[in-house]
Amino acid sequence: MTPRLIKELACQLPHYIKTISCTPHKDVYLHLRSHTFLNRVLFFLKNHSLTQYKVLVDIVAVDFLNELNRFELIYVLLSTKLNSRIYIKLNLNNFFS
After folding, report:
1. 19: Cβ–Cβ under 8 A, 6 or more apart, which residues?
2. 41 and 13 in contact (C-beta within 8 Å)?
3. CB 94 within 8 A of CB 70
4. What is the sign of the dihedral through the CA atoms of 78, 79, 80 and 85?
5. Of 71, 69, 76, 84, whose CA–CA distance to 27 is shortest?
6. Contact by Cβ (8 Å): 59, 72
7. pLDDT tens per residue, range 51-63
8. Beta bridge partners of 86
């Protein structure tokens, strides 16, 4: 399931995703290019037949004090139908509004 999912994400959302990786536990990590793509990616992940990530489990914010992209947000989504999680990471700078 996971290789098929990664291939589908890479084909359907190539301009939105910076990197895609997978863990041995079959969790998928997406790193988005920009925060402006978040709504489109979440809509796709919720409604596509291969994904169906309909539950928002957690939102994590990390503050890196000495970096240009100071803030990092990580959204954790769960697909109860497929019993899998996906982590969506995006970086924000100080001037994000």
Report:
1. 29, 30, 31
2. yes
3. yes
4. negative
5. 84
6. no
7. 889 999 999 999 9
8. 28, 77
The tokens of 66 are what?
A: 């000495």
pLDDT in tens, 35-81: 888 899 999 999 988 888 999 999 999 998 888 788 999 999 998 88
Q: 50 is written with which tokens?
A: 């291969």
69: its two tokens = 């992209």
As given in the structure block, the two tokens for residue 10 are: 């890479």
The CA-atom distances, in angstroms, between 9 and each of 20, 30, 48, 69, 73 are 8, 9, 10, 25, 20
Rounded to whole angstroms, how far apart are CA atoms 71 and 43? 23
Tell me the two tokens of residue 19.
């990197």
Dihedrals phi, psi of 36, to nearest 5 degrees: -70, -20
**pTM more than 0.90:** no
